[in-house]
Write a structure and sequence with these properties.
4-stranded antiparallel β-sheet, single chain, Chemotaxis protein chec, alpha+beta, 6-stranded antiparallel β-sheet, 24% strand, 2 domains, elongated
């Protein structure tokens, strides 16, 4: 008698590739439980196919690379002061990818720090992998130097581990804010830390984000963390980030500055002296004739207003000198007038 189960064809279990480690990302977990094949994929067409295509067209941001390189130097010094260990920080890469694609491929367990850029009124995400989490916790709690990387445990992070990583993420955001001062002063404040990428969704899955990945080595232990800045967050300074060169003083040239100042002081301008003003109906203005007198509400001894291009400069008294009409300044230039 044959077994009833012989008629069923069971799928082969997923194979683990040697050398990839024992961690799963969200895509691997979905594939393990068969979620990726539960719903048949319909062919995409039209605008949806363009939006969700794998081809990403983006602008290169040269100044963002300069900001990240500056952050590497300052963050390494700050981490040495925090942990009292010999720490090496390096910038691995700066890429552009879709927000949903990056978050789905983050190896779990991991921590996701959501921060807000107050001046831009938008958000960003810092992802910290498990290797760096346990390395920071081990270093801050007095672990021995040179230990082998700890094996990732299948448990949730404790409150102590979260608070220690919070300090490191806050430190990274402070250094990133300081590095942005050459482009534009900003304040990045860490709001919360999540353990699931679903609770750190600050943008749509198809939104393009700039991802800067850093590696931190602590004498045989360490890991990586990434900073995600959606292009919508960088929009207020996109024009500045597109520049290829920017000096410490935004490219100021002292020689040309002095030349422009000398030329401006030699520029000839027209100065007007207003005898008086009076509002008249249009029918009276159109009816003006030769010899008609217009009375102004000023006396001969009143000070007149001196203007240049409609901007008040001061007050003066009218008189006569060498058979010419002249004025004598009664106040200093722009004294008593809004600049």
């Amino acid at each position: 008698m044959s077994d009833d189960f012989d008629d069923f064809v069971l799928p082969d279990p997923p194979k683990m590739v040697p050398g990839e480690g024992d961690t799963f990302d969200q895509a691997g977990i979905d594939a393990l439980f068969g979620f990726c094949d539960a719903v048949p994929q319909q062919p995409k067409s039209g605008l949806k196919a363009v939006i969700e295509s794998n081809v990403i067209s983006y602008e290169r941001l040269p100044m963002l690379e300069v900001v990240c390189e500056r952050m590497v130097r300052t963050f390494a010094t700050s981490m040495r002061n925090l942990t009292s260990d010999a720490i090496d920080v390096s910038l691995e890469e700066i890429t552009s990818t879709r927000f949903g694609e990056f978050m789905n491929h983050v190896a779990l367990p991991a921590m996701f720090g959501v921060f807000k850029v107050r001046e831009w009124e938008n958000f960003g995400v810092v992802t910290v992998n498990s290797g760096l989490i346990y390395a920071v916790v081990d270093a801050l709690l007095g672990g021995r130097r040179g230990n082998a990387p700890m094996r990732v445990e299948g448990r949730a992070f404790t409150t102590i581990e979260t608070q220690l990583v919070w300090k490191m993420v806050e430190l990274a955001l402070e250094e990133l804010s300081s590095s942005f001062e050459a482009v534009e002063p900003v304040t990045m404040a860490l709001e919360r830390i999540e353990a699931s990428p679903r609770f750190a969704a600050i943008a749509g899955p198809s939104n393009i984000t700039a991802v800067a990945t850093f590696r931190v080595d602590m004498e045989g232990r360490g890991g990586k963390f990434s900073i995600l800045l959606p292009y919508a967050t960088l929009e207020p300074v996109r024009a500045k980030l597109l520049q290829r060169f920017m000096g410490e003083k935004l490219g100021r040239d002292r020689m040309w500055e002095a030349h422009m100042a000398s030329e401006l002081t030699s520029t000839a301008v027209t100065v007007d002296v207003v005898l008086g003003e009076k509002q008249m109906p249009l029918r009276e203005v159109t009816g003006l004739k030769v010899g008609q007198t217009i009375a102004l509400n000023r006396s001969p001894d009143d000070a007149l207003q001196v203007q240049c291009g409609g901007v008040p400069l001061g007050q003066a008294h009218i008189g006569q000198r060498s058979q010419n009409i002249a004025i004598r300044m009664a106040t200093d230039i722009s004294k008593g007038f809004p600049r």
